[in-house]
Amino acid sequence: MLAAPTDFRTATGAAVDGEPSPAHRRRGAVLEDAIVDAVFAELSEVGYAAFTIESVAARAQTGKASIYRRWPTKQDLVLTAFCHRFGSPETFIDDAIADATTRDIFVAIGRRIIEICESAGEAIRAVACEVTRSPDLATAIDSQVHCEKRLAAVRVLERGVARGEVRPDAVDPMFAEILPAMLMQQMILFNRQVDDEMLLAIVDRVLMPLIRAD
After folding, report:
1. What's the Cα-to-Cα distance from 129 to each of 48, 133, 189, rounded to whole Å?
2. Residue closest to 65 by CA, chosen among 119, 3, 11, 6
3. Which among 205, 186, 189, 187 has a CA at the least distance from the CA of 106?
4. Residue 167 in contact with residue 108, Cβ under 8 Å?
């Protein structure tokens, strides 16, 4: 299993042959955003198999050696970009909805998933296709991208039990994965648009009946 991806904020370095001069080098948040954008653009245009660090460096206007020093393989780079773009569990479960019902929190989670799929669907689809051929990539994606979000959703279920909204035996990763699995199936596998009406139908007609306390 891979170690945790290197933070993009460390993506700087001295100039070497073939890299932009120090005067033209992007640094800090500007370089960080440029690399992330380049990763997603490359995945969307050429897929995972044809994806190269050299192409990402060219798009980001930085030297390939600077990228290789921190992410020696394209898998390392893609995983870091996904973690950076999709954010931490707090992205999904914000303090602003701390007093919301379990149902409303899952609606908010669903809306965030839809937003991500709409903005990065082609890149996600490219990686999802590669996952079917690469067990190592599948394991890394699950452990480094999905795991924390799944555990955060389990915590929502635990909170729901404490509020009397969720039955105790529904505190299980299987139930936490229902909503993201259904949304990803529609948007990534079937390439369908999911509007708010469909989201609410999934939450109210599928998820909540399965987890609701009697």
Report:
1. 8, 7, 9
2. 11
3. 205
4. no
* Collapsed DSSP state (helix, strand, coil) of residue 192: coil
Which of these, 171, 156, 164, 180, lies nearest to 210 by C-alpha position? 171
pLDDT: is 124 or 13 the higher one? 124
Q: What is the pTM of this model?
A: 0.82
The burial class, CB within 10 Å (0-12 / 13-18 / 19+), for 122 is: middle
**CA-angle at 192, arms to 37 and 47, nearest 5°:** 40
The residue type found at 148 is E
What gap in Å lies between CA 97 and CA 120, rounded to an integer? 25
CB 122 within 8 A of CB 43: yes
Highest mean pLDDT among 27-36, 85-94, 174-183: 174-183
Encoded amino acid at 205, one letter? R
Q: Which residue has the tokens 């700087």?
A: 12
Residue 186 in tokens = 């529609």
**Span 65-113, pLDDT tens digits:** 989 998 999 999 999 999 988 877 665 566 546 689 999 999 999 999 9
Tokens read off for 16: 């070497």
Task: Round to whole Å and give the CA distance between 3 and 187.
Answer: 30
What contacts 74, CB < 8 A, 6 or more positions away?
Answer: 48, 51, 52, 53
Is residue 187 within 8 Å of 121, Cβ to Cβ?
yes
